[in-house]
Amino acid sequence: MLKLLLPQPAVLIKDGKSKALVIADPHLGWEMALRDKGIHVPSQSTKLLKKLIAVLCKYKPDQLLILGDVKYSVVAAKSGEWHDIPEFFNELENYVKTIAIIRGNHDANLEPLLPSNISLLPATGTIIGDVGLFHGHRWPSPTLLKCKTIIMGHLHPVVVFRDPAGF
Questions:
Q1: Those residues with Cβ within 8 angstroms of residue 68's Cβ, 6 or more apart along the chain or in another chain
Q2: Strands laid side by side in the 126-128 sheet
Q3: What CATH number is given for 2-152 in this structure?
Q4: Is 108's pLDDT higher than 80?
Q5: Cα 38 to Cα 58: distance, rounded to the nearest angstrom
Q6: 135/68 Cα distance (integer angstroms)
Q7: Residue 9, Cβ density class (10 Å: 0-12 exposed, 13-18 middle, ≥19 buried)
Q8: Predicted confidence (pLDDT) per residue in 54-75, tens digit
Q9: Of 22, 84, 11, 92, the residue nearest 50 (C-alpha)
Q10: 3 state SS of 121
Q11: What pTM, to 2 d.p., does this model score?
Q12: CA geometry: angle 66, 16, 58, nearest 5 deg
């Protein structure tokens, strides 16, 4: 069974007695990139963590699955990510039995930032029941493509507002 948890950007997948909460693209540390450009936004990691904990407490899944792009920086982690990401996952471990991450295009060199018991899955994805899940920057595995339902992260839909002058 697949349940959209609107208005939260999350999906709950029930497979037998097991439940997995699925989110995508948290991009922890994006505020640091803005700061480098002179735009000062406080860290949003704590706010995201509180929202995620509330969803975990409400639905009590066995697993949290993140469809990639845990961090914002693409290659090397920025200094703030060395603080925010371990703290984020250390806290989440109090609310869910297992945490797995499907690699996204922003997840290079993620391993040193994670607690040792968090699973890193390949970018080609994973399958829960009849649902295939992957990040989306790489082609999914052939087996995943045969699933009844496919869920992909990576997309960042936006709304653009333009004034009458085209700006």
A1: 24, 25, 101, 102, 103, 104, 105, 106, 107, 123, 135, 136, 137, 153, 154
A2: 126-128, 131-134, 149-152
A3: 3.60.21
A4: no
A5: 38
A6: 5
A7: middle
A8: 999 999 999 999 998 887 555 5
A9: 92
A10: strand
A11: 0.86
A12: 55
In the chain, the percentage of residues whose pLDDT exceeds 70 is 86
Strands 98-102 and 119-121 turn out to be parallel
DSSP category for residue 1: -
Q: Both tokens of residue 85?
A: 């990401």
Q: Tell me how far apart the terminal alpha carbons of the chain are, to the nearest angstrom.
A: 44
Which tokens is 52 given?
A: 């995620």
Task: Residue 27: name the closest of 52, 56, 48 by CA.
Answer: 48
| Domains of the chain, residue spans | 2-152
- Reduced to 3 states (helix: H, G, I; strand: E, B; else coil), residue 13 is strand
Grouping H, G, I as helix, E, B as strand and the rest as coil, residue 23 is strand
With 80 as the cut, is the pLDDT of residue 140 above it? yes
Q: Tell me, what amino acid is at 22?
A: V
